[in-house]
Amino acid sequence: MMLTDKVAVIYGAGGAVGGAIARDFAREGATLFLTGRSMEPVEIVAKEIEAAGGSAEAAEVDALDEGRVDDHLQSVVDKAGRVDISFNAVGIPSTNLIGVPLVEMDVERFVLPITTFTTSYFLTARAAARRMVANRSGVIMTVTTLQSRTGYPTAGGFGPAMAAKEALTRQLSVELAPHGIRVVGLRPQGIPETEALKEAYQPRAKASGMTYEQFKELAASKTHTRRLSTLAELANTAAFLASDNASGMTGTTVNLSMGTLDD
Ligand SMILES: NC(=O)c1ccc[n+]([C@@H]2O[C@H](COP(=O)([O-])OP(=O)(O)OC[C@H]3O[C@@H](n4cnc5c(N)ncnc54)[C@H](OP(=O)(O)O)[C@@H]3O)[C@@H](O)[C@H]2O)c1
Fold first, then answer.
1. Dist CA 199 CA 190 (whole Å)
2. d(Cα 26, Cα 135) in Å, to the nearest integer?
3. Per-residue model confidence as pLDDT tens for the chain (263 residues)
4. How many CB atoms within 10 Å of residue 95?
5. Ligand 1: which atom is nearest the Cα of residue 144?
6. How many CA atoms lie within 13 Å of 23's alpha carbon, on the beta-carbon side?
7. Taking the model in full, what pTM does it have?
8. Do 56 and 49 form a contact (C-beta atoms < 8 A)?
9. CB atoms within 10 A of CB 219
10. At 183, is the secondary structure helix, strand, or coil?
């Protein structure tokens, strides 16, 4: 097991990505502190992990609430002694934020993904870093989309939001790596098992005169594998990145686009 004795906090753990990461980290031996804006989905994941013999505790934490993020993380450190891994898997509904060309978009809809994603990543990373510095050890992680590196029509503010998160990964790393803290991201292809993919593709499919299925097939056709990502592939890579086996990796976002994007 790659994460034995590691203490991991996950933000957005009730979501598809956060839940998959949580289950995988638990299977690899980590003790999980799961958080989300709504308690119910987070509790479901925590109970599943406990039922499978793992250790997971659920808490309601809005990852945009500076005080709550800080208080919760302090409670984790008070209880578990430290925090080794912080994973931000927060995602917001995209339906009303995409599918419209930028020239027709109002500023509120444009900036919402940018401020939400960057603020929650900054707050959760900063809270973790402040505690990890004392141990000279820790891994801060998040997830982005291909929009960080290439233009997609009608993706609104999501492209700039994802590019900003990847820039923040690099900037956190250059400041924190000298203190023994690694900062790494993951950039998967779309994941058809998730509701969020449907939400993200449907307005863009409609804007291009396609069905969701056609749009999904088009995206898959642009990969070397001719298929999109799975949650298991993302979670397995995340567990490796979170582990000491990846000690040489920091300041980078791992390209899981399966060939769609060149490095
Ligand atoms: N799904 C994909 O195909 C895919 C591919 C590449 C990258 N990603 C990235 O992965 C991340 C998660 O995606 P997902 O598919 O797991 O989406 P999801 O299923 O919609 O999950 C997102 C989670 O974030 C939570 N959340 C939203 N705002 C929050 C806040 N302020 N504080 C705490 N939790 C908050 C949501 O809780 P509530 O429901 O309570 O708001 C939800 O549980 C996103 O950043 C997305 O861009 C996803």
1. 11
2. 22
3. 999 999 999 999 999 999 999 999 999 999 999 999 999 999 999 999 999 999 999 999 999 999 999 999 999 999 999 999 999 999 999 989 999 999 999 999 999 999 999 999 999 999 999 999 999 999 999 999 999 999 999 999 999 999 999 999 999 999 999 999 999 999 999 999 999 999 999 998 998 899 999 999 999 999 999 999 999 999 999 999 999 999 999 999 999 999 999 98
4. 11
5. 7
6. 19
7. 0.98
8. yes
9. 21
10. strand
For residue 191 and ligand 1, the question of a CB distance below 6 A is answered with yes
**Residue type for 56, please?**
A
Q: How far is CA 163 from CA 92, 131, 246, in A?
A: 16, 26, 23
CB neighbour list of residue 123: distance below 8 Å, 6 or more residues apart: 63, 64, 66, 69
CA 89 to centroid of ligand 1, rounded, Å? 6
Q: Distance, CA 195 to ligand 1 centroid (Å)?
A: 10
How far, in Å, CA of 239 to CA of 22, rounded? Answer: 10
Query: Closest Cα partner for 187 from 124, 126, 229?
Result: 229
